[in-house]
Amino acid sequence: MFDNLVSRARASMAKRRNYNRLVAEIENLSSRDLADLRADRSEMLYQIHKQIYG
Length: 54
Hints:
The protein is mostly helical and 54 residues long. The protein has three helices and no strands.
């Protein structure tokens, strides 16, 4: 039971670390970069949240 709790906590921390890394990458994109990608920052943030957390 304790092992299950620890493994779930580690998995949750890994998801959060990955999410934070991706958010930082998106936040560092300039408006010009976003225009070149034809992307919307808020949509990108929504999609990574959806991808990581379901």
